[in-house]
Specification:
Order of helices and strands: HHHHHHHHHH
Pfam family, one: RabGAP-TBC
CATH class of one domain: Mainly Alpha
GO molecular function, one term: GTPase activator activity
CATH architecture of one domain: Orthogonal Bundle
Number of strands: 0
Distance between the termini: 16 Å
Oligomer: single chain
Helix content: 55-70%
InterPro entries: Rab-GAP-TBC_dom (IPR000195), Rab-GAP_TBC_sf (IPR035969)
Keywords: GTPase activation
Largest sheet: none
Structural class: mainly alpha
Protein name: Rab-GAP TBC domain-containing protein
CATH superfamily of one domain: Ypt/Rab-GAP domain of gyp1p, domain 3
Amino acid sequence: MTDESESFWCFVELMESLGPNFDRDQNGMHSQLFALLKLVELLDSPLHNYFKQNDCLNYFFCFRWIVIQFKREFEYETTMRLWEVLWTHYLSEHLHLYVCVAILKRHRRKIMDEHMDFDTLLKFINELSGHIDANATLRGAEALCLCAGENGAACIPPGTPPSLLVETGMLYSQQDDI
């Protein structure tokens, strides 16, 4: 973007949309982590059972992925492409959660074979930064979303924040005023 005011209003909309991720009570994050738990339970029950047996059901190891929508996991250009896909709400307004499941599913064997406890898992997930194949992950997330279908949508509690709010239409109304 070359127009400073357009950049400003895009940033304002982004921050308003991601606002539930930064609430003091963390309700937005907790509802997304709970939805992630339910999606893993539906789409990868062996991994879900492993997390259950190893006291990892809080999914806090995925916190960073969700709070800033994978910003630290990829290079700038890849992050911009990922955000564009997520924010189209193609297939689901919660596609970011399916991306989380796709990453976890891709690394399930290593997680389980190495008997990772919560601390080891958190370290492993953080060290994935810069080593995640974005294209394969997006293909996996799309396949998981299609596979889950209505059952996947039913796993996500009402009020769970989407990857980006779209009902405000603020960006479009700003452009119409110009």
